[in-house]
UniProtKB/TrEMBL annotation:
Belongs to the glycosyltransferase 8 family. Pathway: Glycan metabolism; pectin biosynthesis. This is Hexosyltransferase. The keyword Iron-sulfur does not apply. It is found in: Golgi apparatus membrane. GO terms for biological process: cell wall organization. Its EC number is 2.4.1.-. It is a single-pass type II membrane protein. It comes from the Eukaryota. The chain crosses the membrane at residues 39-63. GO terms for molecular function: polygalacturonate 4-alpha-galacturonosyltransferase activity. It comes from Turnera subulata.
Length: 568
């Protein structure tokens, strides 16, 4: 930057250099009349004082890209507001609006406030009614709260509908059971002995690989057996013991009699055909199935008496899952009686009916359980919160004194669904007695909670608001109930000290919970487990995970076709 005074002393020019030469920033012309040297001196002194500030502003503007300005007018437009102290008011407006929102946040929405149905209607009403910022803030708050309520209601409705869908029997599966039952009564071939008489000794031959499957779902059972046989390197060494209830026995027997899966050996038995399964041996389970309080808890209205405003959708989903009717089914508890049901067997693999076998399971019989009873995959060492990050605190109510005094909430949980059981080691333990004892305590706690709830309803009546009553009920239930799910928690206690962890690749869980299951991990797993509500035979099953199960369904079978079990 240069200061140039003309020889005639009639003009003073301030210029700046750039790549194109010099640019005149400021030029002061002096009138022709005589100016004293004192005045000129003062003028130069003032300019000398202002020049550093001009230089600094010019540098700032240049750094912000104003170096492209090629005229004094351009620079003036940039520097003018700064020199005159004019700033952008948008920041102040935003701060004022934040202040209004903070005030409105703690205030009640005015009664009778009519809400627009959409954002476009809101804008239209603001223009026509000239709303001030405070009114707009109230409108915005009311619309957001209404939207949040509708979303919550929709989510809870979705969860309830999904729970009902998961707990119900699809029409096609009911049809399959009825048609096969009719076939059992009319077709002698459907009633043929399973297995044939000459193969009966193999049912207790410990040189074979024995699988146990307890289910009343014929289609699911066919997939488990078929996938195990097709994935085996030695299918001729497989023996399947399929256990079902009395109402499903004829249909289950018909299916495997009419659709043998050679060369595997398949036995189908109903619970009524086991001499050991008497009321004297399983009194606790008899109570589970028959007590009104228990049946009401699992089959009753899951919404009545619940304060949904104080519960998250995820927790509500967990509670619904915990109240699935399957948890009071005798078939779901049968695994605890394996040593008594199969007294001649030394080792078995127990499978749930919602699994698919994708790899040869023969090596399971070679695993050294190190004197333990149960070979299982642990579920506390993964990142997935739904399935593979479970400890005792996820299953038990540690506000209950009996639980708090006997269990460690950080103890690792393990999975049912694919377990290798050493029955010889099991028979030397008191696992069954411990299971019965804890299950009995749980039933008593649940009945106390049920009776307390009924008593509270009688005594409170209409004297207090519903919210207060709900709060009291939740406290009663939280203090009295011991755990959520019906079969795994008592097993977690009964098998403490008797579990041998096996490699997680043997058993992949969560295909009925998670839509974002890693497909590559699914392909690598030996057994995939559709635990959760989204079973592959239901319409709510995940479409991209269903093919791993569906490839083992014989869609050409006449019973399958006539019941309209269609390939997805």
């Amino acid at each position: 930057m240069q200061l140039h005074i003309s020889p005639s002393m009639r003009s003073i020019t301030i210029s700046s250099s750039n790549s194109n030469g010099f640019i005149d920033l400021m030029k002061i012309k002096v009138a022709a009349r005589h100016i004293s040297y004192r005045t000129l001196f003062h003028t130069i002194l003032i300019l000398a004082f202002l020049l550093p500030f001009v230089f600094i502003l010019t540098a700032l503007v240049t750094l912000e890209g104003v170096n492209k300005c090629s005229s004094l007018d351009c620079l003036g437009r940039r520097l003018g507001p700064r020199l005159l102290g004019r700033v952008d008011d948008s920041g102040r407006l935003v701060r004022d609006f934040y202040k209004i929102l903070s005030q409105v946040k703690t205030e009640e929405i005015p009664d009778g406030l009519k809400l627009p149905v959409s954002f476009s209607h809101l804008v239209s009403e603001m223009k026509s009614n000239q709303y001030d910022a405070r009114t707009f803030a109230f409108m915005l708050k009311a619309m957001m709260e209404k939207l949040e309520r509708e979303i919550r209601e929709s989510k809870f409705s979705e969860l309830m509908n999904k729970h009902f869908a998961a707990s119900s029997i699809p029409k096609s599966l009911h049809c399959l059971s009825l048609r096969l039952t009719d076939e059992y009564s009319s077709n002698a071939h459907a009633r043929r002995q399973l297995p044939s008489p000459e193969l009966l000794p193999l049912l207790s031959d410990n040189s074979y690989h024995h699988f146990v499957l307890s289910t009343d779902n014929i289609l699911a059972a066919s997939v488990v057996v078929s996938s195990a046989v097709k994935s085996s390197l030695n299918p001729e060494k497989i023996v399947f013991h399929v256990i079902t209830d009395k109402k499903t026995y004829a249909a289950m027997h018909s299916w495997f009699a009419l659709n043998p899966i050679s060369p595997a050996i398949i036995e189908v038995k109903g619970v009524h055909q086991f001499d050991w399964l008497t009321r004297e041996n399983v009194p606790v389970l008899e109570a589970v199935e028959s007590h009104n309080a228990i049946r009401s808890y699992y089959h009753g209205n899951h919404i009545a008496g619940a304060n949904l405003s104080d519960i998250t959708p995820r927790r509500f989903a967990s509670k619904l899952q915990a109240r699935s009717p399957k948890y009071i089914s005798l078939l779901n508890h049968l695994r605890i009686y394996l040593p008594e049901l199969f007294p001649n067997l030394d080792k078995v693999v127990f499978l749930d009916d919602d699994v698919v076998i994708q790899r040869d399971l023969s090596p399971l019989w070679e695993i050294d359980l190190e004197g333990k009873v149960n070979g299982a995959v642990e579920t506390c060492k993964g990142d997935d919160e739904w399935v593979m990050n479970k400890r005792f605190k996820n299953y038990f109510n540690f506000s209950h004194p009996l639980i708090a005094n006997n269990l460690n909430q950080d103890e690792c949980a393990w999975a049912y669904g694919m377990n290798i059981f050493d029955l010889r080691a099991w028979r030397k333990t008191n696992i069954r007695e411990s299971y019965h004892s804890w299950l009995k305590e749980s039933i008593q706690s649940l009945m106390l909670a049920y009776d307390a709830e009924n008593e509270l309803h009688k005594t409170i009546g209409n004297k207090v608001c519903l919210t207060a009553m709900d709060f009291s009920l939740q406290n009663l239930k939280s203090n009295l109930t011991m755990w959520k799910l019906g079969t795994l928690p008592p097993a977690l206690i009964a098998f403490r000290g008797h579990v041998r962890p096996i490699d997680p690749s043997w058993h992949m869980l969560g295909l009925g919970y998670q839509n974002k299951t890693n497909i590559e991990n699914v392909k690598k797993a030996a057994v995939i487990h559709y635990n959760g509500q989204s079973k592959p035979w239901l319409e709510i099953g995940f479409e991209h995970l269903r093919p791993f199960w569906a490839i083992y369904v014989n869609y050409s079978n006449d019973f399958i076709k006539n019941c309209h079990i269609l390939q997805s």
